Amino acid sequence: MKNIIEHKDTIVFILSVLLTYGCANGPVSHPDPGNRIESMKNTVRYLAGINPSRSYDHLDSMKKSATYISQKFGEYGLTPQEQEFVVSGTTYVNIVASVGPPGGSRLVVGAHYDVCGNQPGADDNASGIAGLLEIARFAKKHESELPYGVDFVAYALEEPPFFGTNHMGSYVHAESLHNNNVKVKGMICLEMIGFFTDKENSQAYPLSIMRLFYPSKGNFIGVVSNFGSSSLAAQIAEHLGATSLGVRTLKAPSFVTGVDFSDHRNYWKFGYDAVMITDTAFYRNRNYHQETDSMSTLDFAKMHEVIKGICWSILNLK
What we know:
Distance between the termini: 42 Å
Structural class: alpha/beta
CATH superfamily: Zn peptidases
Strand order of the largest sheet: 1-2-4-3-5-8-6-7
Number of helices: 8
Number of domains: 1
Oligomer: single chain
Largest sheet: 8 strands, mixed
Radius of gyration: 18 Å
CATH class: Alpha Beta
CATH architecture: 3-Layer(aba) Sandwich
Strand content: 15-25%
Helix content: 25-40%
Shape: globular
Number of strands: 8
């Protein structure tokens, strides 16, 4: 059975490489978002420094994280709201802040703020929250240029023991959109966006055949989607490609290990287009879910380029 599954994975992957993306042509807007490296460092420093760690069983730390995120949204001119949900008698919150027209379709940009166990979680996922906040600041500044609304969401409970369950904060949010018949333009998940390395053979992959198509160095940003989200992924990859970063895309079904390993999975469940922006997590970063996932391991210059590309994507999605 194992050989059959691997063979099926290989066929699907080859098809995903051979199939080309189609992007809508037209004028693009690439305004300078300004240098936000120090601001991102401050966010990662604060979140990674919370003790005890911001895991589900340390409620005070979760509250400190949520309060910080809300305050930053407020500083940037957004009005944050708490989406409360109860798991096993305990209340957790997603933090939601919106810009752009209140009616019509919505674009969701999200990242989780919890960690797995007793670790600082600098890359996983303080990096994603730092990016979320800076993209929100940019979007607010360019609000008049947005033809659709953008919802920025910081999720609780992405990590085990809740991963893959209906208790994930992103499941709660996606379900609420579905139940309220909200038209969703797409969802962008920021999942570990700060670890890059130029070392040879530093990049691993779920399928050995991928080494024929993808780099051996972990110095690129990944755009991961299912087949239904190909157009969204292509557009985002195009704007990320206008930065100084290397960009690689992968579209594949969920049975390819890692493709659905974050909050975007829950938007797929409700039929929404969604992509994951990632440094590929444990396929590159050996500090994944370890006490060594510290701020000192992150490349903030490259992380800033990721943020720049997502900012440009938000302004230009068709």
